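Students often ask why we bother encoding 3D structure as a string. The short answer is that it lets us treat folding as translation between two languages. Here is a chain of 227 residues written in the first language.
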Amino acid sequence: MSKHDESRRKFLVGAAVGAGAVATGGLPADALAQAQKKKKTAAAAPSPAAGHEHASGGGLGAFLNQDDAATIAAFAERLMPGAPGKPGARDADVLNYIDLALAGAYADLQDFYRRGLTALDQYCRTTYSKPFVELSAAQQDEVITALEAGKAGGFTWPSAGAFFNTLRTHTIEGMFADPVYGGNKDFAGWRLVGFPGAQPAFTPADMQSREAFTRVPMTGLQAKAKG
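And here it is in the second language, the structure alphabet:
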């Protein structure tokens, strides 16, 4: 992992820890259930046309088509890059979180994402003659930097900065929110920051330790719902 990647990772982890509530917060449960139902229904439907399958396979996602899903997955991974022993956005299935969110609680942002992704694709093709997913990691970082600074051309609504900020926020949510909302797979984000999840009790040693909490069971809202 480069120093640039490590710096970005530390920033996003710090932002998540500072937010606090993101570890246990997330999408409204009813909106999540509706999105998951849509995803299961789509998966059982006849195979869609090429170019409209979910990036992770298994037919359509809850909202995103294959191309958009691949772009978001690559973008989120550059925001929260993985490294040996350190999970990234792909490991935590941030894409699934965003997909479910856009089919449910964040449905009002569907057009925002469509237009933003279209502008991103046009900017990358104009600047590098390739879509975002085909760029090198260094080029993807250059694009993300231009977005953050509001210097990427071709964006009207959403603005380049607004699109970047939204994707960054949703990446943090997908990385650190309770797994019941579709991200934070296998508690990857919680393990990264040492958040213990739901625990029946903490030992005196647990309370005094300054090390990241990793002992099982590490459970979330899904286990509580089944109880």
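Translate back mentally: The longest helix spans residues 110-128. Keep this in mind for the problem set.
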